User: Fold these one by one.
Assistant:
Number 1:
Amino acid sequence: MTFSRDDSAGYLANHLARLFARELQARIKPLGLSIGTFPALLVLWEGDGLTQRELIAALDIEQPTMANTLARMERDGLIQRRRDPHDGRAQRIWLTETARALKEPATAAATAVNARALAGLSATERATFVALMRKVVTGLQPDDEVV
């Protein structure tokens, strides 16, 4: 069987992700945000005060990537790190007022990108597409069982 990128789910998903990222970056750059910090902000906007370990688990990324992202976010005035009052070894990540104020315009930008990308699909197709993506993501998650 010959490999065809036009029929490869992985290739198409990667291409789609790059297109989404490029469009979103163009829309959030004027807000002072980047594609690298946006996922962490999405999680923190749902509820801040998380530890780095909790953010890593929520975003399914590597520890060094998260450490670099948090360093940039702290430098850019988006987060503050504070010691956990119950565990002196842990730090909790808190949004600044600057980051809180960016929630509405940044999520509006993401909503606009999604709307543009899915405009050619019916409401049923959009729901099916998103449901299938969730299913594929779940299928690629590592098993929790140790073999």
Number 2:
Amino acid sequence: MSTTSIKLPDDIKQKANAAALDLGITPHAFMVEAIRKATLAAEKQAAFIADAQAARAATLQSGLGFAAADVHAHLRKRISKKINAEKKEKVSKPSKLAAKPWRA
């Protein structure tokens, strides 16, 4: 394990120490966990952006997409089906959405 030093403003250091004390851990463990969480969040955000860019590229290439109103109606049907299933009521399965050309 390597050592890294970090300079913190006094107010941040005091808050980190207080939070660590509240959690019953050392300030070092608190900062390591904070860095771990921030790293995971950054990785998830990067993956989300990469997925969005790939989806955009696929949509632009195919020229197919979904109208927002159709998606909203589909989701409402799915939610209604789930709620009614919990109430033991029968509801027909919503039809699968079909992508449509969106280019003019």
Number 3:
Amino acid sequence: MPVPWEALIPFALLTTMFGVGGTLFKTTRTINNDGKTPRYNIDNWEQMMMNRDKRLTGSIRGQSSNPKAPPEFATNSIQSVKKLLV
């Protein structure tokens, strides 16, 4: 049975486009995570630590080895303020 050679061009184009799209998606996810792999199955503790890291360093993937928190850490609480209707 002969091979339909004209079908190889669309096959190569589709394979290339899926490869390029997947690579670009992975690259953008990695760049958004400060060069680290994305996190999966995040539980409440990890979410709380990510919020703490965001308040300390400005990035959810950033961590600080400084034993003392910066002064603004005392005032940038994660608690939201509700507006009272009077």
Number 4:
Amino acid sequence: MTHGSVVAREYGIPAVVGVHQATTRLATGQRIRLDGSTGVIEVLS
């Protein structure tokens, strides 16, 4: 994850990394919306 955040910063691309327990709180196939500018994750379905 560290490499991805560095690359995103250098290219000016918003990114969300290091979300606590994301792999246990989100299910495979679940739809979400990420706001890389604010870090907000919204579960859609």
